[in-house]
Each structure stands twice: as C-alpha cells, then as structure tokens.
Amino acid sequence: MADPSSYRPRPGDIPDSPGVYRFRDEHRRVIYVGKAKSLRQRLANYFQDLANLHPRTRTMVTTAASVEWTVVSTEVEALQLEYSWIKEYDPRFNVKYRDDKSYPYLAVTMNEQFPRVQVMRGHKKKGVRYFGPYAHAWAIRDTVDLLLRVFPVRTCSAGVFKNAARTGRPCLLGYIGKCSAPCVGRITPEDHQELAEEFCDFMAGRTGTYLRRLERQMMEAAEEMEYERAARLRDDIGALKKAMEKNAVVLADATDADLIAVAEDELEAAVQIFHVRGGRVRGQRGWVTDKVEEVTTGALVEHALQQLYGEESGDAVPKEVLVPALPEPVEPVQEWLTGRRGSNVSLRIPQRGDKKALMETVQRNAQQALALHKTKRASDLTTRSRALEEIAEALDLDSAPLRIECYDISHLQGDDVVASMVVFEDGLQRKSEYRRFQIKGFAGQDDVRSMHEVITRRFKRYLAEKERTGEWTDGADTDAPLAEGSGTGNPLAEGSGTDNPLAEGSGTPDSLAGGPGANGSLPDGGGAVFADAEAIADSLKDDDGRPKKFAYPPQLVVVDGGQPQVAAARRALDELGIDDIAVCGLAKRLEEVWVPGEDDPVVLPRTSEGLYLLQRVRDEAHRFAITYQRTKRAKRFRAGPLDDVPGLGETRKQALIKHFGSVKKLRSATIEQIQEVPGIGRKTAETIAMALAQAAPAAPAVNTATGEIIEDEEPDTTGGSSGEPVTAGVPDERRGQET
Q1: Beta-strand relationship, 257-264 and 320-322
Q2: How far apart, in Å, are the Cα atoms of 695 and each of 444, 710, 721, 734?
Q3: Using the 8-state DSSP alphabet, how is residue 511 labeled?
Q4: Among 63, 238, 268, 466, which residue has the fewest nearby CB atoms (within 10 Å)?
Q5: Does the bond joining 697 to the residue before it have cis omega, within 30 degrees of 0?
Q6: In Å, how far from its chain's centre is CA 632?
Q7: pLDDT per position as a tens digit, 414-466
Q8: Residues 6 or more apart from 735 whose CB is under 8 A from it?
Q9: Complete DSSP assignment for 285-312
Q10: Distance CA 490, CA 172 (A)
C-alpha cells in the first residue's frame, strides 16, 4: 500500500487550468481517470488526510503510485478526453457501466442496392438505419412480421438473395406477399429503395400519413366494388395499428427524447434509459455498475451520457434528454451533446406533466433492475469468494488467488501445435487478456516441452516489463535466464519479428505486439498541452498506459495436465528466478489437482466450489486453444498461390478472383489484363504474374464417386485455391484426435 505523500506533486507544479488527470499503480497501469475545471484544486483534494477521504477514494490513492495530467483549453475538450481515456485504459476505479452491445436493434441496410430489414447487434455501421434497442429479438421479429404486409421489404440474407436470383424463383415470402421479390426483378431498385424509406419513416413515428393513405385506397376500392382488394387493405390497416399498439403513445406532443433514471445505494447503481421517438417508446436499455469511486447522481448521469452518445452523432442524439439530476457543471456536457448532434440539445429535469410521469415510470424500472441484480449478485459473490478461499486452502497459498492464468496445448497429431492462456480475475473471465501462442521452438508432439516453452515466453515478457519500468528486484538473476534462446540477452528479442507468436492475442491489434509504449510514451508528470481534443485522443495510441499484454503476474498458474506438465511449468519459472507464483495442474481423468514436488495429487470434493472454478478455468483454456488450432488448420488448408504474393491483401485477392472467375484463368491472363482490375498497378501485376508462373498448377480434382475430373471453372469466393485435389483413400483430417 503506497503512501500518497510519496508521489504527491508540488502545488506549484500543477497548473490552475482545465485538464484530465490519471492515477497509475506500481505497474504503471492506469487505475483512475478524472477531469477538472482546475487541476490544482481537484488534485489537492486527493492528498489530504486519509481519514477525511471516502473509503473508496482512500483505496484508490493508496493503490496508486503516481499521478500525471494533461492540460486542455476548455471543459468540453476535457470531457471528450476523459471519455477517450476511460474507453482506452478501462481503469478499475472508474464507474463503468456494463456494455449494452448485446441489445438487439431493428436495422435497415440503406447502404445496399436492395435494403434489407434484419435484427442486428454489436457496433453500429455506417449507412444503416437503426431502431431500438429492444429488450428481446422476438419483439423485433413480431413487429417486422406485421409491417411486411404493408412494406414488403427484403429480409433475406445475401446468400439466399443470390440463390433466388440465380434460379429465378423467389423465396416463400415472395409468394405470400411479404416480400416484393427484388431478387427476381418484380420491383426496380429505385422502387424498393422508396419502399424501405417508407418503412423507416413508419418506424420513426410518422405513422399518420400511411394510415390515411391506406384508408383512402380502401374506400376507393370499395366504391369500385373491388372488395377483395379493399379487404386486403383493411387487413393492412389492422396490421399497422396492431404494430403501433406495441408502442403506446406516452408523450402527446410527438416528442423525440431520451429519459434516463438512476437507482443507487452505497455500493451499486442501476441506470435505465427509455428512447421515445414520435411520442412513443421505441426502445429500452439498462446498465448496472459498481460504485468504485465516490460519485454523485449527477456524475452517474454524466457517465451514462458518455456511454450513450460517445460514439453517436446526428439524429441518434435526440433533441431532448431528460435526467433525474444535472451534471455539475452542466454547460460543458450540454455543449458536448450539441456538438454530437449538430444542433441544440436540451438537457433538463422534468418538473410536471406527462414527462415527469414517464420519468417516474423509468425510475421504477431502474429500482426493479437494481433489486433484481442485487438478488443475483449476492449468491454469485458468495460463491466466487468461497471458491477462491477453497483453492487457497487446498494449495496452501498465503491469500486467495485473485488472478488465475491457465495454459493448454492443442494440436492435431503433432501438426499446428498452439497454446492458449486464459485469465480469470476475482473468479470471472477477463477475455481482454486472453493470449494465443504458436509453438515454434521445435516440431512434433511434445506437450511437456510445449508447456515449458509457453511458460518461459510468457514470463520473460513479464520480467522484461518489470525491467523496462524499473521494477526489477535486486535478487533476480537478470542475465542467464533472459538470454536463453535469444542470443542477445534482450528478453524482447525472443520471438521477435514478423512471426512473433506473442503478437497473436485475443482480438488485440498487431500494433501492440511489441508491448505497450514500444513507439514512445507520454512523459511522466504530465502538463503536456495539445492543440485540441482530437489530437489528444490520437496520442493515446502509443501511450504506455494502455492495457499491457504480459505485464501483470498471476497469483496462480494452472496448467491443463498432470504431474509432467506441472513440473515443466515450475521448472520454467525456476529458470527465470520467479518463486512467488504458485503452480498447479488439473488432470482430466479423475479431476485431480497436482502441485509441484508432490507424488500424490490434491483431491478436492466433487461438490467443492474451488474444484468447480478450476474446471471452468481449465475448460475455457481448452476451448480457446482448440478454437485457435482449428482456425490455423483451416487457414493452412485454404492457402492458395495468391497467398504467396508479397503485398497482396485479402481485398485485392478477392477483386482478382471476382474479375477473372478462378485462379486458372488468372494464371493465363497477361499483365495488361491483370492491370484492368481496380487497385492493381503495373508492378503488382508483374509480381502476381511471376508468382503464378513459378507456382505449379494444381492437379485436377477427381470426383471419387464417378471418376470424373472436376474442372476449375467456378468462381473461388474464398480468395484462394487450395491447390490440393481430393483423392480417394485419404482420410478426412477431422478424424484425427484434437488435443
């Protein structure tokens, strides 16, 4: 536990200007981000007598080991930079609402020639109109099913659409009148685009126009004695009204607004948001957060606004946002919202009438969400705590292992040998810290040797980070262990280069492969002044405070295996001089827990929560490893001659195959013909022609049932050709045993 006075900056060094500050722990990890109108006054509040601080604030300042800041010109820029840093660093002491990316939206792909209506989740895409979010996907499908009677917009996938266009027959929806069948030319692209626009207008709340138009058409059909057509129009009107009943009118003045309510106690807070468009509730979402810092209701509202609108613009930000308490100060937040929308946004507390009544409804939803969450969380916290305590007791650890790393080796009969590292913190998955490894130290099948290599590489990087940040302990042997296998004495040299297996993380950009801060970092102590908030956000890409790959040691290393694998892991740690990390292994056969140096395993009761947690950790490592191994194997089998062309990416490979139809036709093309493909210049065309000329053409594939030779005439949509024919007598690769 650090003494805040040990890193307290001198008051004269802190500017009396707006800015954003960061507290870092002893590992240089950013643990808290905050903004201030006056950095000097705000930071002074953290360095007062610890007894006067809020308990959570006291924990934060004693966990931190340094503080730094960045000066900006306005409070709006400070708000933007704070949001960027919280998204970038994921500080443990900041309020973080659980992500809402899994909420389903009704999406209309207006960026396509024939727009499609579908359910979408995840990040929003440019050119797509979104409505929602909805609590359940089935609610979207029910609404769409009703509206397709009146707005028969395309709902099929690209594959179904292309297949229908090829065969000349529409799908079932085209026959029953719930699709205009653009796939077979029943409607022009322009008319279908207009139909999709009308669908979007109706979903946006402009319903009166379409109802009046249908009623007029129904009356005209009845007057002309076209009773069947009049009956269909009557049913269409009923379908529209039924769809509208699912979203009752809550604000009579056709208001577009978002209502945010907060329910909180000393430890947690729940936020509920109602999205009202055209006076009707069009979507709802909710978040729950741990109050890891001392925070007011206004500050919770501010964090919710950042989460809601930090990546939105235009009409996605409504004209009016109703909240239970205003942030302090409110002017920068309102100016920031106005900038996101492009026009004035009203941020206020409803005082009377329908809006206040609706806010009370949203508040009740928030209170119920908090009560439900606390009921579930109580049992979860108790179970996880008991599991960690049981593991600590069984392995004779000094404290509960709050961070557990588990390693597994996977291969197919000795080919494509890979390894996985999964991380559990406080008994929960930490997927952002999962890592994958390729075994390149040797060829063949040897799980024990593979485990030794992976543990060595992972903890070499940990020691390298300690040495780089000046945290190296005096008793550590800094020469022999780190020089092993590198030839340079440099721990980062091991596995470096383009084949660096450490670069293959779980969804982590390759730019991080060299370790955080590899390309420079912000100076400690802060005070840097940037021209604008956008430049500040761009500077974060190379800051050494971003989440690091291997900088944080676990309290417990778990390996998937028995006594040999455990001994290999322990030996790797001993060779690196690491003796403060416990090791154990979980054998699959009898679920025995093996520890180094013991002839007999530790047997936990089958009902033990500790054993159940170890099983979950082990199974997750196995899943992650085997998924990576299958991906590598599939990629190897799909490899074609175009993969060997230097500088040719996936987009241009697909463009070449689309233009020529197959690799065979591309191989026979001239350089001038290859240059006709968009994005292919003379030099690239010559490189492609040379690479294809040097590559031996694939032998013809044979149909083993008929003996016929299969010609390579069909377009290769995968961007490459395997170059390997299917021959009789070769067993399917999936019959091999995966480990």
Answers
A1: parallel
A2: 27, 20, 12, 28
A3: G
A4: 238
A5: no
A6: 22
A7: 677 889 999 998 888 888 889 988 888 777 778 888 899 999 999 888 888 77
A8: none
A9: EEEEEE--S---HHHHHHHHHHHHHTT-
A10: 65
